[in-house]
């Protein structure tokens, strides 16, 4: 018979599903885990030289403790990663790359400021703007616009407590079934914060200065946390000035035993100058230059976002019910090839139930969820006159809606083996109205398209020992085109480009675990794609958005590996430790019998990306961690494979000390050899046909040093 999991005030494990994830090696009828059980929640292959963190707080019903969050991630049948904020709090963590660079299989490359490319398993591999194929969430609640596109501007690394990475179809736990999966950025609550009060100031190269504060309090059934970060930087390149203001807050209240509600509020304001792309010669020889068109057009990105969200959680007789709701308002002023002016809302609701119960005498873990979310975006464009609005060229409305139902089940037919099954049904509509009436767009136009389907998932999880897992699974993904894909100039003269949804079957097998001083997380995968959404820049000199088309067949396969070895302990006889971490991401992405590109490599991402970290930590709080980021061969710049950028090696160093009184000092030095390299590429079709070479390259940052002081009390 199902047994009820008793409510514990501010409990670390707020549902029977989370409890079961901590007890994977116990008999199938067990509903709780013995305190002494060794669990995968402690496995880490991060190479930062940081400790596990302070003693865990209990968490609460809406937001479990960090240990429980880690355990839930590691219970997934498939490739996942968990990043504790303690591993990056002593860096100059300004971008998503700074947060995720130790996660194998996650390719994040900076362009400038907060502009970057995020790709997992080749998702949006040649996409030069926005995020495609990855769902971004904050506290489990979507951040993407309703059409699926997303940005990083409202993610503040200093206001995070952890990050959960679910690669590919493993993100079904959130209802996401895109090729790349989902990344969940979890903010702290008063229960999970590292300290009730945090003050921090950073500074360094490129006239950078950043201030941060965080305050949290618990009073009876209520708790509150408020944080804010102000960043000012001139940037490495000309015309790259960045000014950001980010504020996050959450307020929780225990309405009754086993019932809690939590409101999230956010305000995010970014003013980022854009230096644009360069020729390959200039990117490698005069990397600080800005593209002349970026200066004459005063190209920039000014975006203001307000967010309100709520999670209300109910502990039931069996399992837990979470009901999420959210509304996001975004205003964008974006002078590039034209002045893009957009203002819109995204809103949704998502109930989700998760629980553990006996099924025929065997343990069964089940997740059931629904999501309904939509958005309306007023899209206007104007002639760019030195960054100001000239004549209006577009007056349109973009409307998107999505209805989804999903389920994921783990049936433990043996004490240490689980069969995982799951599926998602979806219907996604995209509607576009061009009102016309303008000299540049005199005729009103309308377009409407709906994408529907089902994405199944099947897998096995074997846990021979409490801290070792082996898994294999197959998942189906579909990526629906967003408005940037659908609404583009085309020779057919249609309002929407006739694009199909990208479909893929992904097969993966891997293992994660720890034996004595060795920890590992290794996955091999292969994805067979149909109608892949591929991007290229038709005329890089104009700095216009990329064109999108469906490639009939492509194949993405690779290796996601991280291994950490504790080399030695007690070097000085008092508990210090020296560890070595190797991270390897292998990307083999190709066209398959394409009528234009044959079996060429898909441009934009290098084949091998390696990161090596040697970390030393002393019980006094002193730590020292040199790191080498190595790309042996650069990526192709074009799908015709006629031009490849050089490989590179970047040497960095982190050092600092954490004092017992809560004060921490750190130094983060990057690219110490001042390597000239290309960080990212605006992919083209055939570089050999572009006179003078494509203006499609973004130089990486030169030598830089940042330092900071943090007080936690």
UniProtKB/TrEMBL annotation:
It comes from the Bacteria. Pfam families: Plug, TonB_dep_Rec_b-barrel. It is found in: Cell outer membrane. The keyword Transmembrane applies. One of its GO terms (molecular function) is siderophore uptake transmembrane transporter activity. Residues 75-182 form the TonB-dependent receptor plug domain. Its main location: membrane. SUPFAM superfamilies: Porins. Residues 1-25 form the signal peptide. Belongs to the TonB-dependent receptor family. This is Iron complex outermembrane receptor protein. It comes from Methylorubrum thiocyanatum. The lineage of its organism: Bacteria, Pseudomonadati, Pseudomonadota, Alphaproteobacteria, Hyphomicrobiales.
């Amino acid at each position: 018979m199902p047994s009820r999991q008793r409510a514990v005030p501010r409990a670390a494990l707020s549902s029977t599903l989370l409890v079961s994830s901590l007890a994977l090696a116990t008999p199938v009828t067990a509903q709780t885990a013995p305190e002494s059980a060794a669990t995968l929640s402690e496995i880490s292959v991060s190479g930062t030289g940081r400790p596990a963190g302070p003693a865990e707080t209990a968490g609460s019903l809406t937001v479990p403790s960090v240990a429980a969050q880690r355990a839930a991630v590691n219970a997934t049948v498939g490739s996942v990663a968990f990043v504790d904020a303690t591993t990056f709090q002593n860096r100059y963590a300004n971008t998503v790359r700074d947060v995720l660079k130790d996660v194998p299989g996650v390719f994040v490359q900076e362009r400038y400021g907060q502009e970057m490319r995020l790709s997992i398993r080749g998702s949006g591999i040649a996409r030069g703007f926005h995020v495609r194929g990855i769902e971004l969430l904050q506290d489990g609640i979507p951040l993407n616009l309703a059409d699926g596109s997303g940005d990083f501007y409202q993610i503040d690394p200093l206001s995070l407590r952890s990050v959960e990475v679910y690669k590919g179809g493993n993100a079904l736990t959130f209802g996401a079934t895109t090729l790349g999966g989902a990344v969940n950025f979890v903010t702290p609550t008063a229960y999970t914060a590292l300290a009730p009060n945090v003050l921090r100031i950073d500074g360094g190269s490129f006239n950078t200065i950043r201030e941060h504060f965080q305050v949290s309090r618990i009073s009876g059934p209520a708790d509150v946390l408020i944080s804010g970060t102000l960043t000012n930087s001139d940037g490495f390149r000309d015309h790259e000035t960045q000014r950001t203001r980010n504020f996050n807050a959450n307020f929780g209240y225990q309405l009754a035993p086993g019932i809690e509600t939590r409101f999230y509020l956010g305000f995010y304001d970014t003013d980022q100058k854009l230096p644009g792309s360069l020729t390959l010669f200039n990117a490698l020889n005069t990397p600080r230059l800005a593209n002349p068109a970026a200066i004459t057009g005063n190209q920039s990105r000014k975006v203001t976002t307000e967010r309100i969200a709520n999670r209300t959680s109910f502990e039931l007789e069996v399992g837990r019910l979470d009901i999420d709701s959210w509304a996001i308002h975004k205003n964008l002023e974006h002078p590039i090839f034209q002045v893009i002016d957009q203002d819109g809302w995204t809103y949704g609701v998502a109930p989700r139930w998760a629980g553990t119960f006996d099924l025929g005498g065997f343990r069964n873990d089940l997740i059931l969820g629904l999501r309904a979310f939509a958005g309306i975006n007023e899209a206007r464009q104007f002639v760019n006159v030195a960054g100001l609005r000239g004549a209006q060229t577009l007056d349109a409305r973009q409307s998107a809606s999505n209805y989804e139902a999903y389920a994921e089940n783990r049936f433990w037919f043996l004490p240490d083996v689980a069969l995982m099954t799951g599926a998602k049904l979806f219907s996604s509509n995209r509607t576009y109205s061009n009102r016309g009436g303008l000299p540049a767009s005199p005729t009103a136009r309308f377009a409407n398209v709906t994408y529907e389907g089902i994405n199944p998932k099947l897998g096995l999880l074997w846990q021979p020992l409490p801290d070792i897992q082996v898994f294999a699974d197959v998942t189906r993904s579909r990526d629906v085109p967003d408005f940037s894909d659908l609404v583009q100039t085309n020779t057919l003269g249609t309002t929407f480009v006739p694009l199909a949804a990208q479909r893929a079957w992904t097969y993966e097998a891997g293992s994660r675990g720890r034996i004595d001083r060795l920890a590992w997380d290794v996955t091999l995968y292969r994805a067979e794609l149909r109608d892949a959404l591929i991007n290229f820049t038709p005329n890089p000199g104009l700095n216009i958005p990329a064109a999108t088309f469906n490639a009939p067949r492509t194949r993405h396969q690779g290796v996601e590996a991280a291994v950490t070895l504790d080399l030695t302990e007690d070097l000085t006889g008092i508990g210090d430790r020296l560890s070595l971490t190797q991270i390897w991401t292998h990307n083999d992405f190709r066209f398959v019998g394409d009528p234009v590109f044959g079996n060429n490599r898909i441009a934009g991402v290098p084949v091998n990306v390696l990161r090596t970290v040697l970390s030393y930590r002393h019980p006094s709080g002193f730590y020292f961690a040199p790191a080498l980021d190595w790309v042996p061969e650069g990526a192709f710049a074009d799908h015709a494979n006629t031009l490849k950028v050089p490989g590179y090696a970047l040497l960095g160093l982190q050092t600092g000390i954490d004092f017992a009184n809560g004060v921490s000092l750190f130094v983060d030095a990057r690219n110490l050899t001042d390597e000239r390299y290309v960080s990212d590429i605006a992919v083209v079709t055939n570089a050999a046909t572009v006179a003078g070479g494509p203006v499609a390259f973004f130089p990486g940052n030169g030598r830089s040093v940042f330092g900071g002081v943090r007080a936690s009390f």
